[in-house]
């Protein structure tokens, strides 16, 4: 706790809010034509950057090794928001990579051979659903995924993020979201009530 009773997190949050507010005020005082120029999306460059991100990431991304399904999700979802689809080879590579992140006992890890986690399962399933198509959608082992979700369910009714992991609202949200994307909620309704 800081001297006034506030936490370090609160102080950091207020600092970020202050910086964002200053940027917002600076932007708000620029004439509309200037705002438009500042906010121009370099669409072609953005698409090129996203495509390259699915091929190979630089060494500075090594810290995100356990978040690789998230990188796929952010890139694939961004492409979808831009109304673009991946070329055949990139799409197949993404599906194959996400399939290698799928744990033999269900769920998806942050990378091949890593422990399954509800957050990376959410990212992987969302990536696969966004890609769509028979190959992508059939790559999810639904039976094993269902069993993984049941294993993550705590006797209290909440969900854990991973085996023996923390229980919080993220776990509930990601479990329910993954379930609804992967199956119908009919058979799962009983087990989450």
Number of helices: 10
Q: Which CATH-level-2 architecture of the largest domain?
A: Alpha/alpha barrel
The total tally of domains equals 2
Stretches with pLDDT under 50, minimum 5 residues: 184-193
Q: Give the integer mean of the pLDDT values.
A: 88
Q: According to CATH, what is the class of the largest domain?
A: Mainly Alpha
The rounded Rg comes to 20 Å
Q: N-to-C SSE series?
A: HHHHHHHHHH
Helix content: 55-70%
Q: Compute the number of strand runs.
A: 0
- Name the overall outline: globular
CATH topology of the largest domain: Glycosyltransferase
Structural class: mainly alpha
- Summarize the biggest pleated sheet: none
Work out the strand percent.
Answer: under 5%
Distance between the termini: 38 Å
Structure description:
The structure is a single chain. The protein is mainly α. It folds into two domains: 1-40; 41-192, Glycosyltransferase (Alpha/alpha barrel), CATH 1.50.10. Helices cover 61% and strands 0% of the residues. The protein has helices at residues 8-28, 32-38, 43-55, 68-81, 88-101, 118-131, 133-138, 142-152, 169-182, 189-192. The protein is globular. The model is unreliable at 184-193 (pLDDT under 50).
């Amino acid at each position: 706790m800081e001297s006034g009773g506030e936490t370090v997190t609160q102080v950091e949050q207020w600092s970020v809010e202050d910086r964002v507010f200053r940027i917002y005020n600076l932007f708000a005082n620029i004439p509309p034509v200037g705002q438009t120029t500042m906010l121009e999306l370099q669409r072609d460059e953005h698409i090129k950057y996203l495509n390259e991100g699915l091929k190979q990431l630089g060494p500075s991304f090594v810290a995100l090794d356990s978040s690789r399904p998230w990188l796929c999700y952010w890139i694939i979802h961004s492409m979808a928001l831009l109304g673009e689809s991946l070329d055949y080879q990139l799409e197949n590579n993404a599906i194959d990579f996400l399939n290698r992140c799928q744990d033999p006992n269900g769920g998806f890890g942050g990378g091949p051979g890593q422990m399954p986690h509800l957050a990376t399962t959410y990212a992987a399933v969302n990536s696969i659903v966004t890609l769509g198509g028979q190959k992508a959608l059939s790559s999810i082992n639904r039976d094993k995924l269902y069993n993984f979700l049941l294993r993550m369910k705590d006797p209290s009714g909440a969900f854990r993020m991973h085996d023996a992991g923390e229980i919080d609202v993220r776990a509930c949200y990601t479990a329910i979201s993954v379930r609804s994307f992967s199956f119908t909620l009919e058979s799962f309704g009983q087990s989450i009530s």
